[in-house]
Design a protein that fits this description.
Shape: elongated
Number of strands: 7
Low-confidence stretches: 225-232
Length: about 240
């Protein structure tokens, strides 16, 4: 029988009315596409004058749920101070005498659920994570820090080499173009020794570093490329 033009509630009422005169309950259930248990359920609800709509399966009592007055207090403080996070809001409420306050994560969920948290602002306040090696000379990072125009009309390309652990700048040289890095690396190798790995950015191409290593003849290096990251490659010193 046609279902598309009728709501679920209308179909259930139609089933109950048909069940009053039907001589074969099982056949009627098959016609409506429901089980006999479901059919008896709707007949019983009709006899009790209950609604034919679906009932909520949510529990009537949630012991761990934050009380409504606490949620309202959190939202009220947030509305008065849009720049405050959950940690600050909870501390202010605690100082104002509120008890049984939720944890910071729950308070954040309350703010999120009520549209008080912007994804863009959350990203701005996320702690910056930096990979860092435990010892010096485990990893060097190298890059050309853009370029700028000089008074004589030429451009300057500053090259830097930084030790990842100490954040010490091993080298910062002004270049006429994004190249000519062999003397800079040669001086750094002679003064600070060989790193275990070199991590170049887009500006310092892998072929340039390979040329540096090859020309200086300073040990055997393994080249590992990364297509999905900013870096083109990592050069690692081969264990002897």
């Amino acid at each position: 029988m046609p279902w598309k033009d009728k709501t679920v509630e209308e179909l259930r009422r139609e089933f109950v009315e048909a069940a009053k005169t039907s001589k074969n309950f099982s056949s009627l259930c098959r016609e409506f596409g429901i089980t006999r248990a479901t059919g008896y359920k709707w007949v019983e609800r009709n006899n009790q004058s209950c609604s034919m709509s679906d009932r909520s399966h949510a529990p009537l009592h949630i012991p761990g749920r934050t009380p409504a007055e606490i949620e309202e207090a959190i939202l009220r403080v947030r509305a008065d101070n849009p720049e405050w996070g959950a940690k600050t809001i909870l501390k202010v409420l605690e100082n104002n005498g509120y008890t049984d306050l939720p944890c910071i994560r729950t308070a954040n969920n309350i703010l999120q659920r009520n549209g008080c948290i912007s994804e863009t602002e959350s990203q701005k306040r996320k702690e910056f994570l930096r990979f860092q090696r435990e010892h010096c000379n485990e990893l060097w990072q190298t890059d050309f820090k853009g370029d700028f125009l000089l008074l004589d009309g030429t451009r300057c390309f500053p090259l830097d080499i930084i030790d990842d652990c100490s954040r010490f700048c091993l080298c910062i040289d002004a270049k006429e173009k994004a190249g000519g890095i062999i003397p800079s690396f040669e001086a750094a190798f002679k003064q600070y020794g060989l790193p275990k790995a070199i991590y170049p950015t887009m500006a310092v191409h892998s072929r340039v570093l390979r040329a540096v290593i090859r020309s200086l003849n300073v040990g055997l290096w393994i080249l590992t490329c990364f297509r999905s990251t900013v870096a083109r490659c990592t050069l690692k010193l081969k264990e002897r």
